[in-house]
Every structure is written in structure tokens, then in C-alpha cells.
Write a structure and sequence with these properties.
There is one protein chain. This protein is 2% helix and 35% strand. With 556 residues, it is mainly β. It has two domains: 422 residues, 7 Propeller (Methylamine Dehydrogenase, Chain H), CATH 2.130.10; 99 residues, Immunoglobulin-like, CATH 2.60.40. A hairpin with a 2-residue loop joins strand 42 and strand 43. The protein is globular. It binds 2-acetamido-2-deoxy-beta-D-glucopyranose (6 copies). The site of one 2-acetamido-2-deoxy-beta-D-glucopyranose (NAG) has 5 residues, from loops.
């Protein structure tokens, strides 16, 4: 660990991992059904996840017609339909600096009850009711919409608390991006609402959908599309090319790999990018020539975004299996779960010469792996102790960390509408992946301030089980991200320095130095002691104002 914690109460920095005989270890729990295909998911409170699907023949009903939005209650394991106006099929989303969540983009609906969602903006104001009663998704398509129609765009909260909306396709395309939106825009709008062209998107056609993008701690944006990567300086409006992803591996839809910004550590917050999966298949072949049986890529590529790191280039590591459409989930202890996807084929549906059912992909990856960023190269990826599921999570599946600290896994449907009796059906079953700490006594946080300023010291009360008092401490500030199409946009983990009081009951924590290290907005704080993480405590980071907000805190 690069000084992410002051080892406050230890003589020996020994990690007190929960004894293997304690609790159930990693395990899956299947409980409840969503009633819509959860092809997008985002945690909006301690008890609720917001899910979106295509407006089509879903079993969950509202006002006598199928629903295409739902609230998943993490306490009761039930879905309630949400009254959505426009079709949110293959949209994206993010929180703003004022705590409002915006769902972005969509499609032309397959049922008459929905309106065209291609330039849709759907507003979810902060809502405290634990069951979501009285919470609404506000839309006014006439007056509140994007400049462009966008399907398969990426959205990303940036340092002024606005959302950058990147790329996409104007409307439905069976496989490749053949009607591209090679530009970006913002919400709330900047530049008088005129989108900015982005060369990266021109260069990476035709497989550049959901460009994998991250806000870097200096405020610039890292983007990857196809096998290319750049740093985009949005203040100067310049693109700087970085080394290509090695070995011709491509990672954007419909050739989906996934990517994450590794946890950021004080005091330097040096950004490192990890990209895994995808395929080395050429993007120049017609989809009818592709096969569901072609192995995906098992490659993970990692680069440090400093001048020396870029000079060294990408470091390669291999997953335990190839994965098309995996996701990577940052865990509160700084490790990463690699989960979901298929071992062969491609994203999208009913396009390749040998679809399985309707699926362009086959051989689901049923066993998650753990990636340990601090381990030596070649020893970072393991599935020791990981359980195996029998529920395929291929195209249109999602996974997200919850406030409880487990993973909510839902969706999967490589089908144009709801289809049940096929090899890869529309999947409504919810599964949780529970880490070992879910079944042992855990640290708890209390009296956590509702709002924290940048570069400030604040205190929280803690209760740490006595068996863990030898463990080292990590305090993570996390954006749990928005899961859609093998990418978790705005997902982020920033470690915070922390010191435990002598009586072991109070933790004094230093917040991130400024709004570029953590783009202002909602977050969860998790305390990990040894290897046991607490449930999360929700906070607002920054001044909570409506974007664009001014720079806050101090430069690094
Ligand atoms: C698919 O199965 C679900 C139950 O899992 C059912 O509610 C729904 O009506 C079925 N839909 C179709 C189109 O067969
Ligand atoms: C499913 O969730 C409900 C509500 O939390 C709970 O009562 C029930 O015990 C759970 N079932 C399983 C099998 O975990
Ligand atoms: C959904 O919204 C429509 C349009 O505003 C309204 O007519 C309808 O009553 C709402 N339905 C529910 C269940 O709130
Ligand atoms: C990236 O793809 C292009 C073809 O589009 C290829 O010419 C180039 O060599 C690839 N880069 C790497 C590092 O494989
Ligand atoms: C492409 O990927 C496959 C599957 O990982 C691998 O077997 C093959 O050697 C790769 N081909 C090239 C040219 O890198
Ligand atoms: C946050 O800002 C957005 C965009 O201006 C606005 O629509 C929303 O109502 C604001 N939310 C709050 C809670 O002020």
C-alpha cells in the first residue's frame, strides 16, 4: 500500500484476514426477479437500485402495459415498476454534483406506450424514501433533451460536477456503429449546446460504442475505443494519443472488453488504467462472417498515466479465461472482481453466422476472479475460493457494488424482445455475489457527516470487532458507478488517509484534496479492517451545488 493509511494502532502491520473457517466465504445467493431485463443498473440509495430495459414485452406491468424501468429493493428483493416516459434501451447515466441522477439516451420503442428516447434525459432527484414511494423519474422530452440522438453513448461525471456524454450511434444498428455520433456534449449543456467533435471516435469506427472513459485526478479524461487510447483535455479541447492496446485487442462495443481506473492513493493519486477482455478479431469483417465460437481475449493491459508510465507502455497479464463483455467491480479493499461475460463470440444478438439461440456469444464465464492491483505481475489474478454460478450473464447483463458491500447481479438477454425458451433467455433472476465479510461480524461506521468538503478533516464513529484489531485500516471513498454494456461509468475508488483514536472508537479522516481527484457528487465511504469491510455510509462530496461548480480544495 502506498501510504493510503496511517497504521495507527499497530506495532506490526499484519493483515488479519478473516480465518477461512469463519463465515461462508465467497458465495452466490439467488433471490427474487426483476420483471424487466436489468440491462442498466445504478445504486441510488442504501436500499434501492434503479434498473432500465427496452420498452418491450416485459412481464413487469405499470398502468396496464409493460414497464421498462424498475426500482429494485435490496431489502425485500422485489422490483416495483417505474413510470418512465421515453424508451431507455441501451442508455447510460451518472450522478451530478447536486446528487441528481441523469439517465441519458435510448431508443425508439417497440411498444406504443413509450416515447422515442434517442435524445432522452431522465432526471432522478435525490429521494429518501427507503421503498421509493413518491420518488419519480422526471422527463419533459419537448424541452429537456440532448443536442444529438445517442444510443450506446458513455456518460461520465467530470470535475465541475457536470456529465460529459461521449459518442454513440444515432439510432439502432444491428452490429457496428454505422451511423456514428463522433462528438461529445455535456449536461447541463456547455458551448451553447453545440457538441464537440472528437477525432478518437472518427479513427475507431466501426466498433467504438460505449467508449471506456475515466476522469483523471488532474481533470483530464482518459478514453479507450477499439484498440486506441487517448487523454482528452476538455479545458484545452485537445487529444493526446497514448499507446494502442497491445496485440490488436479491441474493447468497445460490439467487441466489448471492460476497463477500470485502479484505486487512487494519497498523497499522489497516480492514475493507472486496467483494461481486460474483448477480442483480437478484426473490426473490418461483416458480422455474418463472425462466429459465436471464436475465443475472446484473455488479455488484461495495465498502464500508469505518468510520462514514465506511458513511456513504459502497457503491461500484459492474462485472465484465467477469455472474456467477451466482462465487468470489473472495484471492491472497498481496493481489489477488483472480474465477473460476467462469455468466453467466445461477440456482443449484440442474432448477427453472427452461428448464433446460439439469438446469442452472438457462447460459453459463459461462470466463475468470477479477483484482481489484486498490488500483487506482482503474473500473480494478480486468481479465482481461488470463488464460487461458480449456473446463471449465464452475457449480453445486457449488469453488476454493481451495493451499500451492503455485496454485488447485485442482474439481467442478460441477447434477444430483441423477451424470449424465455431459448438457450440464452431473457434473464430476470437476481443473484448476489457475497464476499466473505457478508457472513462475519463487520466493522461499522456511524455518525458519518452527510456532506464532506474537499481537503478537510472529519470524524466518524467506528465499531471494530475485537478479533480484527490487529488488522490494517483502509478507508475508501467510492462512486459505485452506472453499469451498462460491460462498462461501469463514473466508477471510482479514492483511498483516504485515516487515523484511529487511541480508544479505537473514532476515525479521523482526510477527504480528497480537490474536486478533480473525486468529481463532486454522491459517494459511499467504506472502512476495511484486515480484509473485512463495513457497510457503506452515503455522503455528498463537495458543496452539493448544481453544476457547473467551481474548483474546490487545493491542487495536488
Ligand atoms: C417469460 O417468463 C416470465 C417468468 O419468468 C413470464 O412472466 C413472462 O410472461 C414470460 N414471457 C414470455 C414472452 O414468454
Ligand atoms: C430473499 O430475500 C427475502 C427478503 O430479504 C428474505 O426474507 C429471504 O429469506 C431471502 N431468501 C433467500 C433464499 O435468501
Ligand atoms: C405515469 O405517468 C403518466 C403521464 O404523466 C400518468 O398519466 C400516469 O398516471 C402515471 N402512472 C403512474 C402509475 O404513476
Ligand atoms: C490497432 O488496430 C490497427 C488496425 O485498425 C492496427 O493497424 C494496429 O497495429 C493496432 N495496434 C496494435 C498495437 O495492435
Ligand atoms: C487472438 O486471440 C486468440 C484467443 O485469445 C489467440 O489464440 C490468438 O493467438 C490471437 N491472435 C493474434 C494474432 O494475436
Ligand atoms: C441538479 O441539477 C440539475 C441540472 O441543472 C437539475 O435538473 C436538478 O433539479 C438539480 N437537483 C437538485 C437536487 O437541485
Amino acid at each position: 500500500m502506498i501510504g493510503n493509511v496511517l497504521l495507527a494502532f499497530l506495532a506490526v502491520p499484519l493483515t488479519a484476514r478473516a480465518a477461512p473457517t469463519e463465515g461462508k466465504g465467497w458465495h452466490f445467493v439467488q433471490n427474487g426477479t426483476t420483471g424487466i431485463v436489468a440491462l442498466e443498473s445504478i445504486i441510488v440509495s442504501d436500499t434501492l437500485a434503479l434498473l432500465f430495459d427496452r420498452a418491450t414485452n416485459n412481464p413487469l406491468q405499470i398502468d396496464g402495459h409493460p414497464a421498462w424501468g424498475a426500482l429494485w429493493n435490496l431489502e425485500t428483493n422485489t422490483a416495483s415498476p417505474l413510470n418512465v416516459t421515453t424508451d431507455a434501451f441501451c442508455a447510460t447515466g451518472s450522478f451530478l454534483s447536486n446528487g441528481t441522477m441523469v439517465s441519458i439516451g435510448g431508443h425508439r420503442p417497440a411498444i406504443p406506450e413509450a416515447e422515442d428516447g434517442r435524445n432522452g434525459l431522465r432526471i432522478w432527484e435525490p429521494c429518501d424514501d427507503p421503498n421509493g414511494e413518491g420518488c419519480i423519474l422526471f422527463e419533459d422530452p419537448e424541452t429537456l433533451h440532448m443536442a444529438e440522438t445517442r444510443w450506446y453513448a458513455t456518460s461520465l461525471r467530470i470535475f465541475d460536477g457536470s456529465i460529459m456524454i461521449i459518442g454513440g450511434v444515432h439510432q439502432r444498428t444491428p452490429f457496428n456503429n454505422d451511423d456514428p455520433v463522433n462528438n461529445l456534449e455535456f449536461f447541463p449543456p456547455k458551448d451553447g449546446g453545440i457538441p464537440r467533435p472528437l477525432d478518437l471516435l472518427e479513427r475507431t469506427l466501426p466498433a467504438n460504442l460505449f467508449p471506456r472513459s475515466f476522469a483523471l485526478p488532474d481533470g483530464k479524461i482518459f478514453m479507450a475505443a477499439a484498440n486506441q487510447t487517448i487523454i482528452y483535455d476538455f479545458e484545452a479541447n485537445t487529444e493526446t494519443r497514448l499507446p494502442d492496446i497491445p496485440n490488436n485487442v479491441r474493447i468497445t462495443n460490439p467487441l466489448d472488453g471492460t476497463a477500470t481506473l485502479l484505486p487512487l492513493h494519497p498523497p499522489d493519486y497516480i492514475p493507472e488504467i486496467l483494461i481486460c477482455g474483448g477480442t483480437n478479431t478484426s473490426d473490418q469483417l461483416p458480422v455474418e462472417e463472425l462466429s459465436s465460437q471464436t475465443p475472446a481475449s484473455d488479455q488484461c493491459s495495465r498502464m500508469t498515466l505518468t510520462p514514465e508510465g506511458i513511456e513504459r507502455g502497457w503491461e500484459i497479464e492474462r485472465m484465467l479465461e477469455p472474456r467477451m463483455m466482462p465487468e470489473m467491480i472495484l471492491m472497498p479493499n481496493g481489489e477488483i472482481v472480474i465477473i460476467n461475460g462469455a468466453q467466445s463470440g461477440y456482443a449484440a444478438f442474432a448477427g453472427v453466422k452461428d448464433p446460439v439461440g439469438n446469442s452472438n456469444a457462447d460459453h459463459p464465464a461462470f466463475t468470477p476472479s479477483i484482481y489484486t492491483p498490488d500483487a506482482p505481475l503474473g500473480q494478480r489474478i486468481s479465482n481461488a475460493g470463488m464460487p461458480t454460478t449456473d446463471i449465464a450473464r452475457v449480453y445486457h447483463s449488469t453488476v454493481t457494488l451495493t451499500q451492503k458491500g455485496n454485488l447485485l447481479i442482474a439481467g442478460s438477454s441477447p434477444n430483441p424482445v423477451v424470449v424465455n425458451d431459448t438457450q440464452y433467455p431473457s434473464e430476470f433472476r437476481v443473484e448476489y455475489l457475497n464476499p466473505p465479510y457478508m457472513t462475519v461480524e463487520r466493522p461499522q461506521l456511524s455518525n458519518v457527516p452527510k456532506q464532506i468538503a474537499f481537503n478537510s478533516q472529519f470524524s466518524v464513529d467506528v465499531s471494530i470487532p475485537s478479533r480484527l484489531t490487529q488488522g490494517d485500516l483502509k478507508v475508501a471513498l467510492m462512486d459505485l458507478g452506472f453499469s451498462s454494456h460491460a462498462f461501469h461509468s463514473s466508477s471510482r475508488l479514492v483511498f483516504m488517509d485515516a487515523q484511529l483514536s487511541e480508544d479505537g472508537k473514532t476515525l479521523s479522516i482526510k477527504s480528497p484534496p480537490n474536486n478533480r481527484v473525486y468529481p463532486p457528487g454522491p459517494a459511499y465511504i467504506f472502512l476495511t479492517v484486515g480484509d473485512v469491510s463495513s457497510p457503506g455510509a452515503r455522503v455528498m462530496v463537495g458543496n452539493g451545488a448544481t453544476p457547473p461548480v467551481e474548483d474546490q480544495g487545493v491542487p495536488i
